[in-house]
Write a structure and sequence with these properties.
Largest sheet of chain B: 2 strands, antiparallel
Radius of gyration of chain B: 19 Å
Number of helices of chain A: 15
Number of domains of chain A: 1
Distance between the termini of chain B: 41 Å
Structural class of chain B: mainly alpha
Number of strands of chain A: 2
Strand order of the largest sheet of chain B: 1-2
Number of strands of chain B: 2
Strand content of chain A: under 5%
CATH class of chain A: Mainly Alpha
Distance between the termini of chain A: 9 Å
Structural class of chain A: mainly alpha
CATH topology of chain A: ABC transporter involved in vitamin B12 uptake, BtuC
Order of helices and strands of chain A: HHHHHHEHHHHEHHHHH
Number of helices of chain B: 11
Helix content of chain B: over 70%
Helix content of chain A: over 70%
Shape of chain B: globular
Strand order of the largest sheet of chain A: 1-2
Oligomer: heterodimer
């Protein structure tokens, strides 16, 4: 209940999101770069949040899905000349299949809590090691995409076009996530997150819905992977299959607020530009210093708002209403 | 492939296994008193290794002599960090705690990168590049000493947990923290001490095995993953289980890289973990 009231009463996140989203259309190219990166992470965070937040299953294996999206399209384009516009659906389908399989493997039994995190991190490491040793996948050198230079092959002259593509992807992902959150599926998933036994007892088909959440989340992540590969024009294991990018996705979502609709938007929206700014202003002085400051920032937010900025904002709002005497009853 | 080479690899695997088991035991200690899954575990050990490097560079202090110093330093670091940082987050749930430690991974890796740079570094010690030859075996002294010390430390930890008041309090919290609190055990304090000891042990472990490894800022995550694997395969909280799991992982990794190359060797522990979690989800020796 709390979330719906918060959403309907606050247009603020929408305004902030649209302001940042539309800014690059009138700004210079370095801003466009940053906006693309920000939107890409928003996309990936929204996708992760479906499983890691709304369904409450701590998945560290999303690098597999990112790699599925990136490598499938690259290979199809490289060897068969198939456009990534078509290839991305193959990548998403592959990712969804992998996701459903992992969910089925892990959730058949009632495993001890957090062991899903361990299964997925182990599978992600296996995937990373496999990709970096198989020559057909470019091994650790990676693969460079063939230069075709036509929009039909997902290659554009200007970054602004890439920007429009990822913006559309984010809007679709956000709409999907909002819709899911408020339909029966989201309700079931949240019930599973809050109390799996109780959800099972009242007849929620737990396994089926976990598999569904994994499938949607994996497919969305793969679309992000396709975009990232096309934008960079190459794929290599460290960027696309390493654990680091998953850790980044998780931390950005956590800072925004896991399990909320706007958390995975707010986190990257604030922190990706902040990280880029730190890189520009500090990166030249000492290696790693901008990432250190960034990491400290993340830890401080988690320390003082373990439920993320969305949660902290909600509490601040309530305290404000309380002081003004217009207190509304807290439902939780 | 001659039998001697296989024997050599097996012995080396067993020695690595003892070290893995010790790292996993300190992780188990931290996990058992608060449910905190510490993803920054290996990074604390990397920090200790770089600490040994810094002590060597500044004071020409040998890593083995620096070990007790690092133990106390890291105990304090762990204790304070738990009080000020981890405990408040852990109060919001074990998931938030795990996410916090992911943030710590980020912080520590980049701290090391900033201070020491990204190059490969090594720490010279009295034992570096010396081998003990017992035909047909050739054993590097740093690994031999490291593994023997690891076994001794694991034994000491076992005695502390089984025979002292502190150990009984830790086990009480592990079994039922509410009941333990009702019996007058100050849970938050025991948790902080256990976290301190866990991190302190990492300081010690880092110092006694530093001669065997090449240091890079990102090395911590590998140790974390190995420790997670050993802890889970052994069954949470089982001492014998962790030792056996350490040996299994060490030997299979060492034989795997000998027979099929380094990448396959590195994949084997993860494959074993996935199989164990799927078919024996409570570990080899865990309670059901």
């Amino acid at each position: 209940m709390r979330e719906t009231r918060f959403l309907s009463s606050a247009a603020l996140p929408w305004i902030a999101f649209l302001a940042v989203a539309l800014a690059p259309l009138v700004m210079s190219s370095s801003w466009t770069n940053m906006a693309i990166l920000t939107l890409l992470f928003i996309h990936l965070c929204i996708a992760w949040n479906l499983v890691g937040g709304i369904a409450g299953q701590f998945c560290i294996g999303h690098s597999l899905f990112l790699a599925a999206g990136a490598y499938t399209t690259t290979l199809l384009s490289l060897h068969l000349g198939i456009s990534p516009w078509i290839g991305m659906f193959a990548g998403a389908a592959l990712a969804a299949i992998i996701g459903v399989f992992i969910a089925w493997l892990s959730f058949r039994y009632e495993l001890p809590p957090l062991s899903f995190a361990l299964v997925t991190i182990a599978l992600a490491m296996l995937g990373y090691l496999a990709i970096s040793s198989i020559d057909f996948l470019g091994a650790s050198r990676g693969l460079t995409l063939p230069v075709r230079g036509t929009p039909a092959m997902y290659q554009f002259r200007s970054d602004t076009t890439y920007y429009v593509v990822i913006l559309i992807q984010v809007i679709v992902a956000l709409a999907l996530s909002m819709w899911l959150y408020h339909t029966k599926i989201g309700l079931y998933l949240r019930a599973v997150r809050d109390n799996e036994r109780a959800a099972h007892a009242i007849g929620v088909p737990v396994l089926k819905y976990k598999m569904l959440a994994m499938a949607i989340s994996a497919a969305l992540t793969a679309f992000g992977g396709t975009f990232y590969a096309q934008y960079l024009q190459y794929v290599e294991p460290h960027t696309f299959a390493g654990i680091n990018i998953v850790i980044q996705i998780i931390l950005l979502t956590v800072v925004g607020g896991t399990g909320t609709v706007w958390g995975p938007v707010v986190g990257p929206l604030l922190l990706v530009p902040a990280g880029e700014w730190l890189r520009h202003s500090l990166g030249g002085s000492l290696p790693g210093v901008h990432l250190l400051v960034f990491g400290v920032l993340l830890v401080v937010v988690i320390r003082f708002a373990p439920d993320g900025l969305i949660g902290a904002f909600g509490r601040a709002r309530q305290a404000w209403h309380f002081r003004r005497g217009t207190v509304k009853v807290a439902t939780r | 492939m001659s039998g001697e080479v296989l024997l050599q690899a097996t012995v080396q695997g067993l020695q690595m296994g003892a070290i893995y088991a010790l790292i996993a035991l300190s992780m188990t200690l931290i996990f058992s008193v608060g449910g905190l899954l510490n993803f920054a575990h290996g990074d604390f050990m990397a920090l200790a290794m770089y600490g040994a490097l810094a002590l060597y560079q500044s004071f020409a202090l040998d890593a083995y002599a620096a070990a007790p110093l690092l133990f106390f330093g890291f105990f304090l670091l762990g204790f304070l960090m738990f009080r000020r940082l981890v405990q408040p987050v852990l109060a919001a749930g074990v998931l938030a705690g795990a996410q916090l430690t992911l943030g710590l991974v980020f912080v520590q890796e980049n701290f090391l990168l900033m201070v020491f740079g990204g190059d490969y570094l090594s720490v010279p010690t009295v034992l570096s590049n010396k081998n003990l030859v017992i035909p047909p075996l050739t054993m590097p002294w740093p690994l031999l000493v490291g593994s023997l010390l690891a076994v001794v430390l694991a034994a000491i930890l076992y005695v502390v947990l089984m025979r002292t008041d502190f150990g009984r309090q830790v086990r009480a919290i592990t079994q039922n923290s509410d009941a333990a609190a009702l019996m007058g055990i100050r849970i938050d304090r025991i948790q902080a001490i256990a976290f301190g000891i866990g991190i302190g042990l990492l300081g010690l472990t880092g110092a006694i095995i530093v001669a065997q490894f090449t240091l890079t800022p990102a090395m911590g995550l590998d140790f974390t993953l190995i420790a997670l694997i050993v802890m889970v395969i052994g069954g949470l909280g089982s001492f014998a289980g962790s030792m056996i799991a350490g040996a299994i992982i060490g030997v299979s990794e060492s034989l795997g890289s000998l027979l099929y190359g380094g990448t396959v060797g590195a994949m084997i522990p993860y494959a074993i973990l996935v199989l164990v979690l799927l078919f024996r989800p409570h570990g080899l020796m865990g309670e059901h």
